[in-house]
Design goal:
nine-stranded antiparallel sheet; 3 domains; Rossmann fold; homodimer; 17 strands; globular; alpha+beta; D-amino Acid Aminotransferase, Chain A, domain 1
């Protein structure tokens, strides 16, 4: 496929802040955007050329995406796989629906990663009370998570030892679960990588991530990990991209162990919160990189001109915006959400400083 | 006036690329935008929340701006002054309509500048053939320009000596003209400065500008002028901002003479093409700076993290886009215009390099 011509329309499934930043990046490259999102006046639609207000799997809406778009992408990983697969028979869908299948189910995801030779926490599927008791004994505690539809720490419970299994499976709603072993990690990092239509690969420097209440709080670059660890993060991300015949940007989260080795925590088949710093500290942001990849353009330069710390504004944190705007060397980004509910990502900011490493 | 709350709507009169980049910057600060522009699906409206498709002085459209907007700005200087003045009685208009009056007429503009103690080329108003012959003798040649509505070198003729005056006034359409003396300038620079609602002032580093066929071709930063010259550019821009009780970003163009002294060429009461580099080389772009100023937010940091050269893509130059995207350290920006007519600004790009000065 040749590169999309300027003026072509890119479909975006999902209307949140990631779609908003993708729409802005697409516009800067001369493309139009059409957002599919049931919530009217969503953050993405405020910047996109047009929005289809409909469910993600609405057949008429999908037919409209096929008619209007030269390529379709998505900004969250819980897009219905059937919808993405059906779309993909009529219009290029990037990243490929296979990436959704892998990332939507934590068991499938870990099996996929292990099959690529990438280490993860130990894990066991949990489909009953008896499964859970056995798994908890086998892994001597662990983090119990829903296999599907989890994000920002929702649907997770930690067990420090093998006790307390009774009734938990039912209390979690009787849905398929996974128990992951407790990992004695020293820190968490992530890497934002991309693969182009021409099989080219690119990665940004890894970021050191700090979570609070299961939600990303900050990402710092440089991450301070050893060069060998950073290189492993890079090659791991590239292995994932190649195994999935992926086109677009991926976010890969890792646990860093005391010896510098890495366990993959999870894959996000999309632009990622821990890559927002690229907009402030690089010439080509992760959003532009994704649009370049799916449009068949050359991947962009991932070099960083500054060190930086990105911090999320969650809920009422957004009230800090006016004070933050008075700080030199700070880039603020708000998402156009009218209501600051607790736990809701309202914006982020990035503090820049001269490059040290 | 306190700062605009997130979610407030900013009105933008004019729908070109400057409005487009203002709309993107406003969104990043959490504001909504409403564009008034007769051309449907204009570059600005593609990123704005909404467009009113109507003439710039349409009474119903202006009433709608008053109802919807917390502040109204403009992206070109030929907004009808009567419309801006009438708007300003009902809603804050920034920059003030007085800035439009000054910049719309080259004679008024130069008289205003001289009154502030700022030097310009010598000039004489030309309202008849006789005026022109006398002016041409007095200034020993010069550049004959329309007093109003000129841009990108349109409506200009150069006379190297005092001859050839006959019939020219009528040939230029019988409209009010100005003859400006030929200035033996060594180079052209411009400065992008801003004034906030709190009277604070800020300026970016001046850019060295090269024009081709009367249209800006490139802007280079650092400009290479002596520090004293840069400081004069800065204080001149600040004097203009204060004299006009201005709020927002202004672009001021200067001729640099052999001794380093400056003549003001013209004032653009808006974000300016020669400031597009700020998006690539600064944390706060001129577009964000303008939105900050008119929204009553603190002015942003004008520090530059890189050296840079911005180049316009005029007409078919836009065909270079795919090749440019393959260059490391380059930021491309296209304007969403479907037709690449000769002389039409289709986009620009900025090449970045490590900061040297």
């Amino acid at each position: 496929m040749t590169a999309l011509a300027a003026g072509a329309t890119i479909g975006i499934i999902g209307g949140g802040q990631l779609g908003r930043m993708l729409a802005a990046a697409a516009a800067r490259l001369g493309y139009r955007t059409l957002v599919l999102e049931p919530q009217p006046d969503c953050p993405a639609a405020q910047l996109a050329n047009r929005q289809i207000v409909a469910a993600y799997d609405d057949p008429e809406a999908l037919a409209e995406l096929v008619r209007e778009c030269a390529v379709v992408t998505y900004e969250f990983e819980n897009v219905p796989v059937a919808a993405a697969t059906s779309l993909a028979s009529d219009v290029p869908v990037c990243p490929p629906p296979a990436a959704l299948e892998v990332s939507q189910d934590r068991v499938i995801e870990k099996r996929f990663l292990n099959a690529q030779g990438l280490s993860t926490a130990e894990f066991l599927p949990v489909d009953s009370d008896a499964d859970f008791a056995a798994a908890l004994r086998s892994l001597r505690g662990g983090v119990l998570k829903t296999r599907r539809m989890g994000y920002d720490g929702k649907g997770q419970r930690v067990f420090r030892d093998a006790g307390g299994a009774d009734g938990v499976y039912a209390a979690m709603g009787g849905v398929p679960l996974i128990l992951e072993s407790l990992v004695p990690f020293e820190r968490e990092i992530s890497i934002i990588a991309a693969r182009g239509r021409d099989d080219s690969l690119a990665a940004y420097d890894p970021a050191l991530n700090v979570h609070r209440d299961g939600i990303l709080h900050s990402s710092t670059v440089p991450s301070g990990v050893a060069p060998a660890t950073a290189e492993t993060a890079r090659t791991s991300a590239f292995a994932i991209l190649e195994a999935l015949d992926y086109v677009g940007v991926v976010g890969v989260e890792f646990f860093v162990l005391a010896d510098g080795s890495l366990l993959v925590n999870e894959i996000a088949p999309r632009v990622h919160n821990s890559g927002h710093w690229t907009e402030a500290a690089c010439t080509v942001s992760q959003f532009e990189q994704h649009i370049r990849a799916i449009a068949g353009l050359p991947l962009g330069d991932t070099a960083r001109h500054s060190d930086c710390v990105m911090e999320n504004l969650i809920g009422d944190d957004v009230l800090r915006a006016p004070a933050l705007l008075a700080e030199p060397g700070l880039m603020l980004h708000l998402y156009g959400k009218s209501e600051a509910r607790p736990g809701r990502k309202m914006g982020h900011f990035t503090r820049l400083s001269p490059r040290t490493a």
